[in-house]
Specification:
The chain is α/β, with parallel strands linked by helices. The chain has ten helices and nine strands. It has a six-stranded parallel sheet, with helices on both faces. Helix 2 links the parallel strand 2 (24-29) and strand 3. Helix 6 crosses helix 7 and helix 9 runs antiparallel to helix 10 (220-233). The chain is globular, with a radius of gyration of 19 Å. It starts with a strand and ends with a strand. Bound molecules: adenosine monophosphate (AMP). Residues 29-30, 36-37, 39-40, 147-148, 150-151, 174, 176-177, 184-187 line the site of adenosine monophosphate.
Length: 278
């Protein structure tokens, strides 16, 4: 596995593979890797002969008050996991490599995929994600990019951005990998105390109960409200629980459309997000 920290090295590795006619998958991450990330790498290798993982804690998607400085970092552990998962290369740029001092471009997202969920609580977030992912897509010139449904709105935003900018990388979404008790794997789970870790299972439970209720005929808005109440009762401070169209993230229009239930809620200082299909 090649460990790459600069743009010229990355370009050289990719050019070599391209010359041999190899296909390339890209897996962008912020590190502190878990089984969810590794599943993306393995999925990348189902589509292509080469998988490039990137590890970059992107300052542009954190607001000043957020957890950039304490975001978990474990470079050695990450490299071992990526090697074992079969990654061909890992790109770990410094912030100066991605954003030199004179850097002046932002990819600004608007439209239905960025209307009213994460963007409402983290207004800087999707422009930061779109900017860094656009740079990675252009740099890696990958055939495929694999993202997790765990960050469902992000997946749709990245897909939109790639289409809008005529980037030919095909974006795949992989279902969320969970712990045995249902909690979605997340680098941020490392922040949870033992007690919070137990409480955290409620987020998947509440969403699952809401999904069952909606399938049984309950109005999506009512089921979401009940899930929000259940999370509050379990000790969460809830940003949102929402039922949305699973393809557009627009508000549900009536029977027959694919629905997605999405939630974001705080346990102490940790913000957890999760979502499930109905
Ligand atoms: P992050 O390192 O949190 O920025 O995540 C990098 C990629 O891994 C994103 O595409 C996430 O959606 C994906 N991911 C994170 N957690 C999971 C999970 N539990 N299952 C599947 N994919 C995940």
């Amino acid at each position: 596995m090649q460990i790459i920290r600069t743009v010229p090295e990355l370009r050289a590795a990719i050019a070599q593979w391209r010359e041999r006619g190899e296909k390339i998958s890209l897996v962008p991450t912020m590190g502190a890797l878990h089984e969810g990330h590794l599943a993306l790498v393995k999925e990348g290798l189902n589509h292509a002969t080469r998988a490039i993982a990137t590890i970059f804690v992107n300052p542009r998607q954190f607001a000043a008050h957020e957890d950039l400085s304490r975001y978990p970092r474990d470079e050695q552990g990450d490299l071992e996991k990526l090697r074992a998962a079969g990654a061909s290369a890992v790109f770990l740029p410094d912030a100066e490599v991605m954003y030199p001092a004179e850097f002046a471009t932002t990819v600004h997202m608007s439209g239905p995929a960025t209307a009213g969920l994460e963007d409402k609580f983290r207004p800087h977030f999707f422009d930061g994600v779109a900017t860094v992912v656009a740079k990675l897509f252009i740099l890696a010139d990958a055939d495929f990019a694999i993202f997790g449904e765990k960050d469902y709105q992000q997946l749709l935003v990245v897909r939109r951005m790639a289409k809008d900018l005529n980037i030919q990388t095909e974006v795949f979404g992989l279902p969320t990998i969970r712990e045995a008790d249902g909690l979605a794997m997340s680098s941020r789970n490392r922040y949870l105390s033992t007690q919070e870790r137990q409480q955290a299972t409620e987020i998947h439970r509440a969403l699952s109960q809401a999904a069952v209720a909606i399938r049984g005929g309950k109005a999506p808005a009512l089921a979401s409200r009940a899930a929000k109440r259940a999370l509050t009762k379990a000790g969460f401070r809830v940003d949102y629980v929402a039922a949305r169209n699973g393809q557009t993230l627009g508000l549900p229009q009536g029977a027959g459309e694919p629905l997605r239930l999405l939630a974001a809620a705080w346990l102490g200082k940790t913000r957890l997000i999760d979502n499930i299909p109905v």
